[in-house]
Automatic annotation (TrEMBL):
GO annotation terms (biological process): DNA topological change; DNA-templated DNA replication
Residue positions of motif GyrA-box: 526-532
Active site: Y124
Coiled coil: 437-478
Identification of the protein by name: DNA gyrase subunit A
Gene: gyrA
Taxonomic lineage from the root: Bacteria, Pseudomonadati, Campylobacterota, Epsilonproteobacteria, Campylobacterales
Species: Halarcobacter bivalviorum
């Protein structure tokens, strides 16, 4: 058999090296020739070829539409040897106003929708360029960019387009190459051009400086970006993550709230979103939604989410943000090709690349115009000579037998160039009139002026920059649009503590989970027995459940009924007026389903000498070092292990001076025992028994940490009855005992709602179930024995009751007025025993009514 390889050179190649080399060539081909945009014009090769093919077909924004199939055919046949579907898909996206911030193709027909509908076949749709595309291609015929051979070397195509628009950042770009990917968000054209103009005058401008002009991405579908940290990271490093939420407003339909979505996050499929919301509501994963429907039309998006009667819109929204694409994350990667190499850019670098490209285009355009002007001036100089010597020129031409002979004689006689002599031969006789001779002279002078201007541009950087400014200003005026995407600051990303004054605040939380903070000065002090001021406007089925006073710089520890602990800075709670509704707590901390906040504890530090004491409804108590709660995750930490059917009632901070723990029950029991009876335990422990109930229906309502027995306790019942009693009257017992009587209870008092330690430098604030808050000086409240009922502190209506009490600082700008209270304290309160038929008017008149003063030591 004949040796097929005879007389041929055989080269041994390592297959591993061959595969590496081949794959590297392939990857670079994908990176440069398909997947990534160029940093100069912001276009991928397929987009660039589509626009250039439309330019070849003279498809301007004013020309008639042409079939998309014709455009695709030209692109494939001349420049882009790939499948027609990939080219048509790219053309379709360039025409979608929900995909591009500034569409590059003006489409006629079905080009898809935000619901994910596909575009019609390319034989049905028509297209032409938009005005933006015209400005991207402007001056391409003036040798402003390099042209390279097409795939079969039969034609030339532009290597890059001479764009006047910063297309890369204006429309953004997405692409996956080999080993790398790009994801550049769209931006607002006004902001971009303002930033470029700033870079012209300040070449060393930083990303932070440019963010004074560019707020952040501006998506064609609008929405709201939450937080600036991701934007700052992206502009400074080239990589960042931003959260985008649907924009909505709330409407009312009878007694129900209706959530209406006006804008969706970028690239979210509307029909799929609606389907997902409906499925989650049907499967009870999201409670409170009764109906979801799409009312969108040509005027814009309108997705209606009707809520059930008892549902709160903010809680439903929070669940929707967590569970659906109503909140999405856009991962920014500013990757683009520059000088045939992929690179991750910062914002200043991208703007400088665009600016440098514009300078190159203007210089090349100026050189082109200059050469053209000089060539025309050269011809005009020859024509002027011919006009000035027309008789001799005519004689020479008539005496010549051929055009070549005439040209040579004219060149020799008048020292003309070949071009000038040819122009003289081509000159019409009409140019010999006096008017035409004047026009020649005027045109020549204009050309000399133009040549001088063009040469000045090439010699002056300032003139070059001035042209760029004029062009960018023209573009800005032509395409100016308001920003569509709003940007809201996130407290999690901004350190604003130093910008907020450290002021006392009243923080309130309602039964349905609405929280707010109000400056303490909003509440005026009243005398005991006053009716109080409305502290918050609530729904019929909602009421203020607890409140406390703290400072804006303090940390709040949220202890829930399930034994979880979260924390939050006070200034992160939205401030509102006295009658404001507040913000849902679920939007501030990540509560679980059915989890309820039982105590909110302010602290200025997490000193290891302090501990946190937890008290449960079933009488369990536990102490844990405060330092164990200094670092809390967003979903909180386990603070105590609870028994079945048990829950946290309250929690208190203890310090080295604390001596006793006191626990109060609803049916009037109280126990005081040494704090050392409860040793410190870790977070994931159960604790020990603190009190033993005498009645199965009894439960813990409050607890306190006592420093010494000389302190006084103020106990308050549901009907607004209260009293001050010295701690020493509550005898110390062992832990886990039944304790002693804390208040004499009956129908006129109601059950015990709470007990606080008396501090005469502070006022008492009592809250009722219908939202009234009253502020009372503690000095006006009479001291009484342990086994008594007390006096009326706040008058409540028949359907109202006290639900919570707390202490707050005295107002420094108001003198204490207790004249009437002193007078009342001088009255023998035993004279005012209330009979069953006593009216509420009599109660208001006395204001210091004592219900019962019988000591029943046997009940101990």
């Amino acid at each position: 058999m004949e040796n097929l390889f005879e007389n041929q050179d055989i080269i041994d190649v390592n297959i591993e090296d061959s595969i590496k080399s081949s794959y590297l060539d392939y990857s670079m081909s994908v990176i440069i020739g398909r997947a990534l945009p160029d940093a100069k014009d912001g276009l991928k090769p397929v987009h660039r070829r589509i626009l250039y093919a439309m330019h070849d077909l003279s498809m301007s924004s004013r020309s008639p539409y042409k079939k998309s199939a014709r455009i695709v055919g030209d692109v494939i046949g001349k420049y882009h040897p790939h499948g027609d579907s990939s080219v048509y898909d790219a053309l379709v996206r360039m025409a979608q106003d929900f995909s591009m911030r500034a569409p590059l193709v003006d489409g006629q027909g079905n080009f898809g929708s935000i619901d994910g509908d596909n575009a019609a076949a390319m034989r049905y749709t028509e297209a032409r360029m938009t005005r933006v595309s015209e400005d991207i291609l402007r001056d391409i015929d003036k040798d402003t960019v390099n042209f390279v051979p097409n795939y079969d070397d039969t034609l030339k195509e532009p290597d890059v387009l001479p764009t006047r628009v910063p297309t890369l950042l204006l429309n953004g770009s997405e692409g996956i190459a080999v080993g790398m990917a790009t994801k550049i968000p769209p931006h607002n054209v006004d902001e971009l051009l303002e930033a470029v103009l700033h870079v012209i005058d300040n070449p060393e401008a930083t990303a932070d400086e440019l963010m004074e002009f560019i707020q952040g991405p501006d998506f064609p579908t609008g929405g709201t970006i939450f937080g600036r940290r991701g934007i700052i990271d992206a502009y400074n490093t080239g990589r960042g993550r931003v959260k985008i939420r649907a924009k909505h407003h709330i409407e009312t339909k009878g007694k129900k709230e209706v959530i209406v979505l006006d804008e969706l996050p970028y690239q979210v499929n509307k029909s799929r979103l609606i389907e997902q919301i409906a499925t989650l509501a049907k499967d009870k994963h999201i409670e409170g939604i009764s109906e979801v429907r799409d009312e969108s039309d040509r005027e814009g998006i309108r997705v209606v989410i009707e809520l059930k009667k008892d549902a709160m819109s903010e809680i439903v929204l929070n669940n929707l943000y967590k569970s659906t694409p109503m909140e999405t994350t856009f991962g920014i990667i500013l990757l683009a090709v520059h000088n045939k190499e992929p690179k991750v850019f910062t914002l200043p670098e991208l703007l400088k690349v665009f600016l440098s490209h514009r300078k190159t285009v203007i210089i090349r355009r100026t050189i082109f115009d200059l050469e053209k002007a000089k060539a025309r001036a050269h011809i005009l100089e020859g024509l002027k000579i011919a006009v000035d010597n027309i008789d001799e020129v005519v004689r020479i031409i008539r005496a010549s037998s051929t055009d070549t002979e005439a040209k040579e004689k004219l060149q020799d006689r008048f020292e003309l160039s070949t071009i000038q002599s040819q122009a003289i031969l081509d000159m019409r006789l009409g140019r010999l009139t006096g008017l035409q001779r004047d026009k020649l002279e005027a045109e020549y002078q204009e050309l000399l002026t133009l040549i001088a201007e063009l040469e000045a541009i090439l010699k002056s950087e300032e003139k070059l920059n001035e042209i760029i400014r004029e062009e960018l200003t023209e573009i800005k005026e032509k395409y100016s649009e308001p920003r569509r995407t709003e940007i809201e600051d996130s407290y999690d990303e901004i350190d604003i503590e130093d910008l907020i004054p450290n002021e006392p605040m009243v923080v309130t939380i309602t039964h349905n989970g609405y929280v707010k903070r109000v400056p303490i000065k909003s509440y005026e002090k009243q005398r005991r027995g006053g009716k109080g001021k409305v502290a918050v406007t609530t729904h019929d089925d909602d009421f203020i459940e607890r409140f406390f006073v703290t400072n804006t710089h303090d940390t709040l520890m949220f202890v829930t009924n399930m034994g979880q602990l979260y924390w939050l800075k006070v200034y992160r709670i939205p401030e509102g007026s006295r009658t404001a509704k507040g913000k849902a707590v679920v939007n501030l901390i990540n509560l679980r389903e059915d989890e309820k906040i039982m105590e909110i504890i302010p602290t200025t530090d997490f000193d290891e000498s302090k501990s946190l004491a937890f008290f449960t409804r079933n009488g369990i108590v536990k102490r844990t070092s405060l330092v164990e709660f200094s670092n809390i995750r967003s979903n909180g930490v386990r603070a105590i292990v609870l028994d079945d059917a048990d829950e946290i009632v309250t929690a208190k901070i203890t310090n080295p001076d604390s001596q006793y723990l006191m626990i109060f029950t609803s049916l009037g029991q109280c126990i005081r025992f040494d704090i050392e009876k409860t040793r410190e335990q870790g977070r994931s422990t159960r604790g020990v028994r603190g009190i033993k109930f005498k009645h199965d229906s009894d439960f813990v309502v409050d607890a306190n940490v006592v420093d010494n027995i000389e302190q006084e306790l103020l106990t308050v019942s549901e009907k607004g009855i209260g009293k001050r009693t010295e701690v020493s009257e509550y005898r110390e017992t062992n832990r886990a005992g039944s304790g002693v009587i804390s208040m004499k209870l009956h129908q006129k008092t109601g059950n015990v709602v709470g007990a606080v330690l008396v501090d005469e430098s502070q006022d008492l604030m009592a809250l009722t179930s219908i939202g009234k808050m009253i502020r009372v000086d503690m000095q006006t409240i009479r001291k009484a024995g342990r086994n008594t009922s007390g006096v009326i502190i706040v008058n409540v209506d028949a359907k109202d009751k006290v639900v919570s009490i707390a202490k707050c600082p005295k107002e420094e700008d108001e003198e204490l007025n207790i004249e009437n209270a002193d007078t009342m304290d001088g009255i023998d309160l035993n004279e005012f025993n209330l009979s069953d038929n006593s009216s509420s008017e009599n109660v208001e008149d006395t204001n210091t009514l004592e219900i019962d003063n019988n000591d029943d030591k046997g009940n101990e």
